[in-house]
TrEMBL record:
This is TonB-linked outer membrane protein, SusC/RagA family. Residues 212-329 form the TonB-dependent receptor plug domain. It is a multi-pass membrane protein. Keywords: Cell outer membrane, Membrane, Signal, Transmembrane, Transmembrane beta strand, Transport.
Length: 1149
């Protein structure tokens, strides 16, 4: 007999520990047998050993057992129901322990007699998603009589009124229900608080108990992603994990977002984390074309297919991926079917309504012109006061040139006298923007038999953006299958196909084609409606399809200087079509109980066909003669892994596990670009026939291939089931660099709470980790290449301006972290605290070369960046009973970033005004501002105005002081309510849009009229006497009041260009958002099932980003002029962000 005489204090460690053994099925029939003989029978018929103290349990007590295909944990529940003993299953060990706060029982206790007047209770047990739960243990409290739910979650048990039925299942909260008159009892079990984070997924896709890990990570479950109301995966993560910053580009459909974990780690290298999908790396490319919103390829994944997201933040947790893991790793696990489960169908429909969340405040008081005089030849709106006009129709000159609109047929003539008081600021806005919508249909089917399971899903998303003619469509198909070929051989296969189509609109703030640039600069007395038509010159020459803009109100010139925004929306086209396949086969071999072999393959392949079209007459400089480009991107990543995992227990107090793996990775990307400009004919057809002249055609091809091989290993040690150590290393060779590089890591966890019993502290762990990860150089940088001279020197080749470097090394990030995980009051409150510090050395960037070398740049390892900070996660189950649960979760993090060295360079460009500057945080604003005195006060001129310092310097830092999130989940019976707030504290934001709008005289702030109570001077030195009413504002820069009038705002105080007093427009970037709020109700029960054949039906309403609190004017501070980039914190006519209301219906069959 294999029963131990001593109580095993601790279970042995296993790297991939889980409770899979507890899912084995057992059949047993024994009448009036001793507990000892029942245990012996279990050990004979299974692989389990049962371990306990001799004094723990009365072995001679007689019980009867009659079960068929019941799970081992359910059988143990039945056996121990009348005892003061609980149990824990670790691998093949069943460890019996005395229950806390349960009175001791004597060996004379007998099984409780069943009450008379039995009722046959039937029902179905489901999980939190209303899916049936097979194998749930249902016992009558105080007896050993019980049953288990079948594959469909159904059960039947005889009980009496007043009996208490106890429903228990591993990973779920136990529920007790008192039997009444109703013979039908359906039960929904909720996940236990501790089980949600119990198992984590490692960087290579295997599982590990979180309590045994020395590295920190964040887990986000599928229901939290679904409640976000986001159509893409990336934005759904916002506010849910400490140390993770999600930076949105704008509210455009399908627009990409930046993911930054623990600060910026590189300057010009890859800045996004590695994405692992079901164990294989996939692309999150965000390749930009022209001035369009970038897309993030991670958003190709259907969020409803995701089971969980694990964010590995530290170098130790990510080190097995070597030179691809410096920015962290995001591990995504998709949903799968369940063996022994009948097919279940889930259908959901979501309808969203999207609104602009912030709109600039514009003026309607003054017309186009300067110095108080109406004049359409000027770009600004410092003209006459509109209310002072007569209100009669405008006086026009009908003797010469004119314009006839294609849209309304209206004829426009030169204005001789502007008399109309009509303004169009609001109506112009409404012609460009609309209420956006998206409709999402999703259907999934999952189930399985004894040897096979499946999960199938289909998604159809149709999104219409807040900008007219901007749309985004996505279709997703996924099939995940699992075949249990034998008891030791399992085949998994995951296949998905995605098609996305989008009609995008040119939006760049820094070009004359930008929507907001043309819309917001337009004079309030200019109607944009008739944007296209026929221009007739004074000599009678006729030109069709001319653009009418506020700078060219008759369409009299081919280049309108600024686009009419309706021209941008209706005439300029930028469609794209993406097709993507992800295939992931995996073979798992379990030849023994201590050895596992995983053979895994993966292919991620996508094509992205995109074009841009500017008809003749577009306001884009050289493109005003017409421009068309066709870009085709082909990307393929192949990945192969072979993994061997072995475990061995040397004693009850010492265990070892080991993992060895090899990885082969091959990435290819080709970008073909064909361009025609200018056009020979005025056409709206996007074909190569637009101009047959070879000089008007250019063709470019960019090809890159990166291959890498890695060998990696992990050694895990456990001592006394308290101390857990993992030592790992990855040896990597890559085609982008010469030689091999080693990436080591180690982590340590000590569960100190096992040393004592405490009713207050239920779990305590101290952890520490250290590791190295890296970033590869860009391909082909170790040699000097030749570049095509297609448009130069007769089409020959020439030496590239960047000199190759054979001595390149990868960027190396070294990081250490320490922390603690604590749980209180029987795991109802959980607290995680982490402090980290990392340094990235040998950062790669292009350094300006000495002109005498013949090269412009040298690509070299030259910079150092540091990050350090705190992360805190706190969750709590405040109320937990049968009808009511209330839980809260909060997270906090701060990160201090510093550019330590950039090889003697003053700055390195990141994007626009954002630079890497030695001694300052990454992404600092570097541009001109006000001249400063030694005490940093503003240096004023003789009139009391700031002076301009044309030398650029660091004016601000967009990095926040700290970020955090607070969420709540409330469930009352079938009603659920949840919310999530996200807060960003501190940092700087520069609103260059407002600088320009002030200069153009169109912002509401510069439309006020003030009557002076004293003589004031303006920036030109003119004295304006008291009593004068003027348009402008009064300010005091430190030497008394001065007048800010047109001369100030059109000078260094506003307008175009960087030589402005930019520091006066830097604002505190603090903001708070109600990220999402959801109210839902679930209908379920036998009546619903009989009438509609539904297991459950849920209806909910969600608000996404409904409320924004910030001191920043006119803009959502999350929007980013630079798109997906390390540069952020600046607005320059960015497309606006959105807030949304979503309605969702979900039916489970």
């Amino acid at each position: 007999m294999k029963i131990s005489a001593l109580f095993l204090l601790v279970a042995l460690f296993q790297l991939n520990a889980n409770n899979s053994y507890s899912q084995k099925y057992v059949s047993m029939k024994m009448e009036n047998a001793s507990i000892a003989s029942v245990f012996e029978k279990i050990e004979e018929s299974t692989d389990y050993n049962i371990l306990y103290k001799n004094s723990t349990l009365d072995l001679d007590k007689r019980i009867s057992v009659d079960v068929e295909k019941i799970k081992i944990d359910s059988l143990m529940d039945l056996i121990l129901a009348e005892s003061s003993v609980s149990y824990e299953i670790r691998r093949k060990l069943i460890i019996l322990v005395e229950k806390e706060n349960v009175p001791e029982r004597t060996s004379t206790q007998t099984v409780k007699e069943l009450k008379p007047n039995f009722i046959n209770i039937t029902g179905t047990v489901t999980d939190e998603n209303n899916s049936p739960l097979p194998g749930v243990s249902i016992i009558i409290k105080g007896t050993i009589k019980g049953v288990s739910s079948d594959f469909d979650g159904n059960y039947s048990i005889e009980a009496s009124q007043g009996d208490v039925l106890v429903y228990s299942y591993i990973g779920y909260q136990t529920k007790e229900i008192t039997v009444g008159n109703n013979p039908i009892v359906n039960v929904a079990l909720d996940p236990s608080v501790s089980s949600l984070d119990e198992v984590i997924v490692t960087a290579i896709g295997t599982k590990q108990l979180k309590d045994e890990s020395g590295s920190t990570s964040s887990s986000i479950q599928s229901e939290n992603i679904a409640k976000s109301g986001e159509s893409g995966v990336i934005n759904a993560l916002a506010g849910k994990a400490s140390g993770v910053r999600i930076g949105k580009s704008n509210g455009d459909p399908g627009a990409g977002s930046t993911i930054q974990i623990r600060g910026a780690n590189t300057i010009q290298g890859a800045s996004q984390p590695l994405i692992i999908l079901d164990g294989i790396p996939i692309s999150n490319d965000n390749i930009g074309t022209g001035s369009l919103s970038q897309q993030s390829r991670l958003d190709d994944i259907n969020p409803k297919d995701i089971a969980s997201v694990q964010i590995l933040k530290g170098a130790s947790a990510a080190a097995l991926w070597g030179s691809r893991a410096a920015n962290g790793v995001i591990v995504i696990t998709t949903k799968s079917g369940q063996l022994g489960k009948k097919p279940s169908v889930q259908f959901s429909f979501t309808q969203s309504y999207d609104y602009i969340n912030v709109r600039p405040a514009m003026q309607n008081s003054f017309g186009q012109g300067r110095d108080g005089v109406y004049n359409t030849s000027y770009a600004e709106s410092w003209g006459d006061k509109i209310s002072d006009r007569s209100g009669e129709p405008d006086e026009v000159d009908m003797t010469g040139e004119f314009f006839v609109s294609n849209t309304t047929g209206q004829t426009y003539y030169p204005v001789v006298s502007k008399n109309s008081r009509e303004t169009y600021t609001d109506s112009n806005w409404d012609k460009v923007f609309r209420i956006g919508t998206f409709s999402q249909h999703n259907v999934s089917v999952n189930g399985g038999g004894q040897r096979a399971s499946y999960f199938f899903s289909y998604e159809n998303l149709d999104q219409k953006g807040i900008i007219e003619n901007y749309d985004y469509k996505r279709q997703n198909v996924r099939l995940n299958t699992k075949f249990q070929i034998t008891d030791w051989l399992t085949w998994n296969n995951r296949v998905s196909y995605t098609n996305t189509k989008s009609n995008r609109i040119e939006q760049a703030g820094n070009t004359t084609n930008g929507i907001l640039l043309g819309l917001l600069r337009a004079a309030p007395d200019f109607d944009i409606t008739d944007y296209i038509g026929t221009y007739t010159a004074a000599n009678g020459d006729i030109t069709a399809n001319r653009q009418r803009s506020y700078r060219r109100q008759l369409g009299e010139a081919e280049n309108p200087i600024y686009n009419n925004p309706l021209w941008t929306v209706n005439e300029q086209k930028a469609p794209n079509d993406v097709n993507r396949f992800i295939i992931n086969p995996e073979l798992t071999i379990d030849p023994t109980n201590w050895l596992k072999v995983i053979l895994r393959g993966g292919m991620d392949f996508y094509t992205d066909s995109r074009s841009q079209f500017y008809p003749i007459g577009s306001a884009s400089g050289t493109r005003s003669g017409g421009y068309w480009s066709q870009t085709d991107i082909n990307s393929k990543e192949l990945n192969l892994d072979g993994i061997v995992i072995a475990t061995h227990d040397f004693s009850n107090d010492f265990g070892v596990s080991g993992t060895l793996g090899v990885n082969f990775n091959d990435r290819k990307r080709t970008i073909n670009d064909n361009t025609i400009s200018p056009f020979a004919v005025d056409s709206r057809l996007t074909t190569t026939d637009l101009n047959p002249d070879q000089a008007a055609t250019s063709w470019n091809r960019n090809f890159q291939r990166i291959r890498s091989n890695r060998g990696y290993g992990v050694l895990g040690l456990s001592l006394y089931d308290q101390i857990f150590v993992n030592v790992s290393g990855a040896l990597e060779a890559s085609s982008t660099i010469k030689g091999t590089f080693f990436y080591p890591s180690v982590d340590l966890a000590w569960q100190f709470s096992d040393l004592f019993d405490s009713d207050f502290l239920s779990f305590g762990k101290i952890r520490a980790a250290w590791g190295k990860v890296g970033i590869q150089p860009a391909p082909y940088k170790f040699e000097t290449l030749a570049t095509t001279g297609f448009s130069n020197f007769g089409g020959s080749f020439m030496v590239d301006s960047e000199k190759g470097n054979p001595d390149l090394k990868p960027e190396i990030k070294t990081e250490w972290e320490i922390g603690s995980d604590l749980r209180f009051l029987k795991d109802r409150i959980a607290l995680g605290i982490t402090y980290y510090s990392n340094e990235t050395r040998d950062i790669l960037f292009a350094v300006k070369a000495n002109p005498s070398s013949g090269y412009s740049f040298n690509y070299k390892n030259a910079a150092v960046i540091e990050n350090k900070g705190w992360e805190i996660d706190l969750t709590g189950k405040l109320i937990e009973n049968e009808d009511l649960t209330l839980s809260l979760n909060t997270n906090f993090n701060n990160n201090e970033n510093m550019v330590v060295d950039i090889a003697g360079a003053e700055t390195v460009d990141i994007g626009g005004t954002s630079k890497a500057v030695k001694g300052y945080p990454m992404s600092s604003f570097f541009l001109p501002g006000t001249l400063r005195n030694e005490d940093n006060s503003i240096a004023l001129d003789a009139n009391g105005f700031p002076q301009l310092d044309t030398d650029s310097r660091v004016l601000g830092d967009p990095n926040p002081d700290w970020r955090g999130g607070v969420g709540m989940q409330l469930n009352y019976k079938n009603l659920d309510f949840s919310f999530l707030f996200e807060h960003s504290q501190g940092g700087d934001y520069i609103n260059r849009t407002r600088i320009v709008l002030y200069g153009f005289g169109v912002h509401e702030d510069v439309s006020q009229e003030v009557t002076l109570s004293e003589d004031l001077v303006n920036v030109n030195g003119d004295i304006i006497p008291a009593g004068t009413t003027v348009r402008g504002n009064i300010a005091d820069f430190g030497a008394g009041n001065v007048l800010l009038d047109e001369s100030w705002y059109r000078g260094i105080g506003g307008g175009l260009g960087f030589n402005k007093t930019n520091d006066l427009y830097i604002e505190d970037a603090t903001w708070t958002k109600l990220r999402n709020v959801t109210l839902g109700y679930t209908f379920s029960g036998i009546k619903l099932s009989k009438k509609l054949a539904l297991d459950s039906f849920r209806i909910s309403v969600t608000g996404r980003d409904l409320i924004l609190w910030t001191g920043i004017k006119d803009v959502d501070p999350e929007t980013n002029n630079y798109g997906v980039s390390n540069a952020f914190g600046m607005n320059y006519f960015n497309n606006p962000g959105t807030r949304s209301i979503l309605f969702n219906l979900q039916a489970n069959f």
